[in-house]
Amino acid sequence: MNPPAGLASEDSVLQLAQSGDRLAFRQLVEQHQARVFGVALRLVGRRADAEELAQDAFVQLHGSLARIESPAHLTHWLLRTVAHRSIDRLRQQARQGRQLPLEALGESPQAEAPESAHDPVAAAELHRFLLQLQPDARAVMILRYQEDLDPTDIAAVLDMPLPTVKSHLRRSLEWLRTQCAGETHGP
Amino acid sequence: MDLEQRLRASLVAPDPGAMFTARVMARVGRGAARRRSSFILIGTVLVVGAAAAMLTWRMSPPRENAATPMVSDPVPVVEEAVARAIPEVSEPDAPVLPPEPAPQDVSAGYSVLLMPLRQEAQDVSRLGPVEALYASMLDELRKVPGLTLHVPGESERGADDQADYVLTISSLATAHRSDGGVTFRATDGGNTYTVNSGSLDVDYGIPQARDGGVAGATYGSGAAIGVVDLVLNNSGAATGVVDLALNMASVNIDLDPDEARDGGGANFFSAGGRGSLSSVSADGRVISFNPGGLANPESLLWVEMRVKPRQSAASRYTFPVGADLATKPLHCSSPNGVRLPECMTPAQLAATQVEMLRLQVFPPDAAYQQRVMARLSDISLDGTKVLLDLLPLLTGDGGSRLDTGTIHALFRFAAGQPENTRAEVWRMLRQVSHPALVAPLVESLRHDPDQQVRLAALVNLEANHATDPVVRNAFEGIDQGDPDAMVRAAVRWTLYGQAQWRNDVLAALQDTNLPYGARLAPLVVRTAADFSPQQSGQMALVRRAVLQEQQVLQPLMALIRGHLRDSEHAQATGDVLRMLANVDDPAVFDLFLQLMQETSLPIQVSSAVANWAINRPNDPRVRENLPLVAPMIPSNLLERMREVTQQAAPSGN
């Protein structure tokens, strides 16, 4: 039942999951849950929403397993799905006039990633600024700097033209620099 | 530090928590569990706090009109079609219904006998909260429309003997253990619970083994931060399914007798959180326990509640709840920083439990269903959230608690929702075979403008009503007339099966008069989310077999070669390439190798090529061309690929 380690094993786990093996699917969830949840959390800002969105992505994955052709495709599919679901949620909330709750802005990095929080105050500040970006721009930034995707990958995940991705990156970085320097006007 | 470096340093993917996997598995397990024809244990996990959150709508009257003004959402075309499919609408058109109908609205009432409180706990100084819980149960039960409550000493003579349900609440006698834990035995004598700090074990001793049953199983748990990992040891040589629900979802565990012999008899799953967990044995008995708040289990007071239907020898519903009622409301502590739902008082706990009884034990509740309809009619609510909340009622017991009026309200709700939600309604009802579903499903299959909705309706009809002549007739009409090749292909699989499908695949590939997408449709059929994992998995195997046939493979490759740069159909081409990636054929390999060297492919196509390449890290021809597709491969995967390649190198792979 236990697959061997390595990339080949990821393929095996995927195939097992596709054949209906629940433990294999569980393993897929465990492998990918942090990054899927992470993208959702940074996008929507609220932990409960992020967990719901990430769960939804995996539930959808379960129904779409047959379409997944490789572990790399799986990663791409999950990122794409959770990013689009999160952006849809943000737009829906915007239509309803809902604002991000203060506690969402307070998802402190030290609680989630202590190893990275060498400057937790500055990191929290960055998170707050990111949450003020428009959903598309925020998604681009998160995929770039959290998931370390290249602009080409981001374009594929978000169904966005490559020049738009680059434009979001450039403009968002400029705006963040301004904010970090103490400016107060909006993005 | 540079801004980009700061961003990378601060944006580290957070841990979703150890409960996350369990919750996902619970949700995906829900459908499969209900398809089982034989099972030994059915369970329900209710996170009490979450249940309390759900009660915010269940127990509260629907919003007033003034608070929920009508929103002039665009009405999709499908609404008209659904309206045609629902000739009789029993509920008013107003979006909000009265909060709670009068008791006389309930056509068939029932009676419950609440036995006097049984105080078996030794520590009499802490029994007051249990009495408060009992009093609150009395109050809550009296509020239930259609429920006639009998209390010994208060009811007329003879009424006790006629009650449909007998409800007993007991505080349990406990024994403290040297390790700080506590052990108690349920009043039925069958189960012994041992609760340690952060964990709980239940010796689930089924008194009599049943055919195909589990002779004796042990639940063990080792809790981490707010998480209970349950290990079910199948000590009997039998197969069974444990179906547990978490947070109104469920997960099932297959007890594989072979695995039990080979692997020590353990399957595992994680059930998350603080809350109560219950499972139902084959004889209908329910046990449940509350693994939450176990920091000081010896301080808890354990309460058991049992409901026995008059018509059944078995208790239907029993739960011991570890309630620190003596010192504070339930669920107030927050071990290790875990965020918890709001605290529950004895009154809130009683409300939660009565709500569970209404949902799971008592007869279908007209008042509850009217509130469901009110919620379905409230267009200011998030449609997806509404569906998730309604899931237990919609699909519980195979939808036995759904009536025609609720079904109609559901479809009127769906008609005003976006296509994703409309499709999701059909998916949620896949386990429900209510005859009132046929007409709306057929109407949706025929007239919904969205392909995914029609496919979802098709799957539902196929699963539940395939033998209905009306449905069969609809399928044949769709085969001839649906504008979408994918829907037609799906219906043809349903009508004619695998042998004809193979011919359809070949015929479509060879028919140059068809548009590109239609030529691929039979091949890629049943890849949609509407199909169950089993169906999709079987289809993937069948598809792989067909793609090994040169008679199919050659025209397919010729076809997609002509559309590699066709951005309009890039998604379909990419999907086919991902299917071909599993085909072991030299020509396919050469095609991918050639595509690796193409520089102007649409992104969906080139990413499929990159996916193929990344799964062949040890082939020198692939490695040689890898830099060409590297921009398509997520950096972390490329790095991972290099690692694996390096690991594989010493062994000569």
Task: Give an account of the 3D structure.
The complex is a heterodimer of chains A (187) and B (653). Chain A is mostly helical and 187 residues long. Chain A has helices at 7-18, 22-44, 47-63, 71-95, 102-105, 109-112, 120-130, 135-145, 151-158, 162-180. Chain A starts with 6 loop residues before the first helix and ends in a 7-residue tail after the last helix. The model of chain A is unreliable at 1-8, 99-118 and 183-187 (pLDDT under 50). In chain B, helix 13 (438-447) packs parallel to helix 15 (469-481). The longest helix of chain B is centred in the C-terminal third of the chain and has 26 residues, at 485-510. Chain B is elongated, with a radius of gyration of 29 Å. In chain B, 48% of the residues are buried. Chains A and B meet through helix 1, helix 2, helix 3, helix 4 and helix 6 of A and helix 1, helix 2, helix 18, helix 20 and helix 22 of B.
> First CA to last CA of chain B: what distance?
42 Å
Secondary-structure class of chain B: alpha+beta
N-to-C terminal Cα separation of chain A, in Å? 51 Å
Strand portion of chain B, in percent?
Answer: 15-25%
Helix content of chain A: over 70%
Q: Mean pLDDT score of chain B, rounded?
A: 62
Work out the helicity level of chain B. 40-55%
Q: Using DSSP, what is the number of strands of chain A?
A: 0
**Treating each run of at least 4 consecutive H or I residues as one helix, how many helices of chain A?**
10
The strand count of chain B comes to 18
Mean pLDDT of chain A: 73
Query: Which term fits the overall shape of chain A?
Result: elongated
